[in-house]
Amino acid sequence: MEDYIVLKKLRRTPERNYLLKLIYERNDHFGAEDLFHAIDKNQFNVSKATVYNSLDLFLECGIITKHYLNNNTSIYEKAYGFKQHDHFICQECKKIIEFCDPRLYQIKKSLEEVLKVEINSHQLYLYGSCQDKACKGSRK
Amino acid sequence: MEDYIVLKKLRRTPERNYLLKLIYERNDHFGAEDLFHAIDKNQFNVSKATVYNSLDLFLECGIITKHYLNNNTSIYEKAYGFKQHDHFICQECKKIIEFCDPRLYQIKKSLEEVLKVEINSHQLYLYGSCQDKACKGSRK
DNA sequence: ATATTTGCAAAGAGTTTGCATCATA
DNA sequence: TATGATGCAAACTCTTTGCAAATAT
Lengths: 140, 140
Prior knowledge:
Two copies of one chain form a homodimer.
Chain A: H1 14-25, H2 32-38, H3 48-61, E1 64-68, E2 74-78, E3 86-90, E4 96-99, H4 103-115, E5 117-130, H5 133-137
Parallel strand pairs in A: 3-5
Antiparallel strand pairs in A: 1-2, 3-4
Helix pairs in contact in A: 1-3, 2-3
The structure holds a DNA duplex (25 and 25 nucleotides).
């Protein structure tokens, strides 16, 4: 699991290793604060600054992905070894459904030509409501 | 231009009218702060709180659109009478190019079926580099 | 040895809130 | 006149920064 570490020419510190471990243990979308609180303070004392620093680093390394939510905060998810996907976000219950649609790549390709630009990445968020019982139940 | 005001059952205040005017005078993507600074303090004294309140209101009315940028801030653009479009953002020079691709609607339609959800809106941002001379020139 | 990384606490940016005052309907 | 809207400043949240001490290479 920690074999994924590709810290390039950077230093391998216990804090980074520990944070990576925490990240790979979870399968959700988490905020910097979530990660900070997941730290076992008895085991390790990682500061918030280091959490942010490390997240930036992991992001650059492609180990995690960052999403900018509609409340001006960010969440992350591990990325390494997972295929590129996009997100549907239920506005009622905040559930996130991941999906992947190859047609998006066609769109990107043709837009590169039409707009005469080079596209490196994209973010697609679909907003709406899911049909979960639990979700419906929570509606006012 | 101010005929667009559809303040529903809400009050028509001089502050809101003035802000709407400012918004319709500009054709760019602007932040709350930008709008606040665009206020002619001699002419009007609109507080920051009112700017934020009004932007929320205009957003609900569909008069403006809100985008969440990759630095956890928001920008707005007027929406009324403009057709839905998406954005390419140059990571070098921050230029924004708007585009509209009908295939995205097909994707949304089929995802509604596949994911069994109802999609109300979406946000698609493409990131990359444009080929402008001015942009290239600014690269380190 | 030395340049990077850390922790801490303080600063910062953007946004929201509380409340008394004001003003639209 | 009654409720909604405003201005102000303080509070809040998330994130970044400065710096001395610690540490990986």
